[in-house]
Design brief:
477 residues, mainly beta, 2 domains, six-stranded mixed β-sheet, ubiquitin protein ligase binding
Length: 477
């Protein structure tokens, strides 16, 4: 910032507010001058940027051992840009000036790019705005970001010097009609069918197989088909239900004396994050995928029974943490963010150990506002959690705490000078600012005092009153 000039952007309300599509952004541009200044122009812009940067080493003639300088790649794409000229070609006096502005977040990107010039992997048509995003890669200088901000530029008339002020904004799209409970999908894992040998074959089974001409089929085994039930789309704070069901194969059946006992021995659930970043404008631009795997659930020795043709619940209160890492899935020109849900289930069935593995795509939706989720937020035991009351400021209370000596005087035990001195010192040390909620004297001792004790208590009260007056007079001196 140049000396004698103070350029600022002030947003109405909270600067960390989470904006949605079609939401207004209001504020003002403040300019403070210490002297008269000729102005060539002052404009405010509302911009959305998708930027990627990276460096790579280029090895000439295929020599991988030769150390070569790193080549820089990068691209900066504008998702949208709205500009307004506040003033131009005038002279401002030495004081503080301000101008109001108002913008609206669009629903989709504005520019259209040709795949012949930008590459075949670019999105040609306008698409919904991606959320605010920032990522640092392991490659030196590698980063990717999606940012939205208000920019103010002040151009002096006397020189070509430009002063700039930037105020970043946080944006996240809103998905309409998001269900409170995610919808479940089913996938039969036919590639993981396993066979179990029957314990015995009865006479009726042999006769049935001979009459139905199924002698070519291995009727001495039972085929078990696992099915995993999972959600494809889920939002932060939503429960992620996972179920497992086991069923017999098409050509398998159980006899009267056959029974299958299966139990779940272990469970591992992990979520993988894949961020694909592209640099450059070639037909085949350099590309990198940053992967991150997080183990969410790991259980051993569960010993949970599984019944045939019935869904068995695997997760209880399994929810996404609503933090900076939980970015909604999106795809834009040079950055793509997607997720995958991996489940590994250890099964014990007739003294055999088997492992069922399933990897499915998981689309993370934008967070749902907290108000409709309060009524459905359940813990493991299914008891709804009552939300905390909203903070309401109030005036400080002027009520004084009760006198400890007055409470102590209810005790039938006669007070001595030593005990009263100890009580007085402890009362002064504690401050006696907060009223006691629990009685300091046992309930058994809170009895109606006898008439003969009234004189002793009255004398003690008079002694306390004289002692207080003496302390007050000493304090005045």
């Amino acid at each position: 910032m140049s000396p004698g000039l103070d350029l600022r952007i002030i947003i109405d309300g909270d600067c960390s507010h989470l904006y949605r599509q079609r939401e207004q952004v209001k504020g003002r541009v403040s300019l403070g001058l210490n002297g008269r200044e000729g102005v060539d122009g002052l404009k405010v812009s509302f911009i959305g940027i998708c930027a990627t940067e990276n460096t790579r080493q280029i090895h000439a003639s295929g020599n991988m051992e030769e150390i070569s300088p790193r080549c820089e790649y990068g691209e900066r794409i504008e998702l949208f840009r709205f500009e307004r000229i506040l003033i131009s070609g005038c002279i401002l006096e030495a004081r503080k000036h301000s101008w109001n502005f108002e913008f609206v977040f669009p629903e989709c990107t504005n520019p259209r790019y040709s795949r012949w010039t930008q590459g075949s992997k670019y999105m040609k048509e306008p698409h919904p705005l991606p959320p605010s995003f920032e990522l640092q890669t392991d490659i030196p200088g590698g980063q990717a970001s999606i940012s939205y901000f208000i920019e103010a530029k002040f151009i002096r008339a006397s020189s070509s010097m430009t002063n700039t002020a930037i105020q970043p904004l946080v944006y996240q799209p809103k998905t309409p009609n998001t269900p409170l409970d995610p919808l479940l999908m089913s996938r039969c894992l036919y590639a993981q069918i396993w066979k179990l040998r029957k314990e015995s074959r009865g006479v009726m089974d042999k006769a049935f197989n001979k009459m139905s001409r199924k002698s070519a089929i291995d009727t001495g085994s039972i085929r078990i088909v696992p099915t995993i039930h999972f959600p494809e789309r889920v939002a932060p704070r939503q429960h992620i239900p996972l179920y497992l069901s086991l069923s017999l194969g098409q050509d398998s059946f159980l006899g009267e004396n056959n029974q299958i006992d299966c139990t779940i021995d272990s469970l591992t659930v992990s979520i993988s994050t894949y961020t694909t970043i592209m640099w450059g404008k070639q037909s085949n631009p350099p590309e990198e995928t940053v992967a991150k795997h997080v183990t969410c659930i790991s259980k051993q020795d569960m010993n949970q029974p599984v019944l045939l043709d019935m869904r068995t619940k695997l997760t209880h209160n399994f929810r996404l943490v609503d933090d900076i890492e939980c970015v909604p899935s999106f795809k834009t020109y040079t950055i793509t963010r997607r997720y995958a849900l991996t489940t590994a289930i250890g099964i014990k069935c007739q003294d055999r150990k088997l492992t069922i593995r399933s990897t499915t795509s998981l689309e993370i939706l934008p967070r749902i506002p907290l108000s409709p989720m309060n009524a459905r937020f359940l813990e493991d035991d299914g008891v709804p959690v009552d939300p905390l009351p909203l903070y309401m400021p109030r005036e400080p209370s002027t009520e004084q705490a009760p006198d400890y000596e007055a409470l102590y005087s209810l005790s039938p035990t006669p007070s001595t000078a030593l005990s009263l001195a100890e009580t007085r010192s402890s009362s002064l040390a504690s401050g006696a600012l907060t009223p006691s909620t629990v009685p300091t004297t046992p309930a058994s001792e809170l009895e109606r005092p006898a008439l003969e004790e009234l004189d002793a208590r009255n004398s003690a009260s008079k002694w306390l009153a004289r002692a207080r007056q003496k302390v007050a007079s000493d304090a005045r001196r």
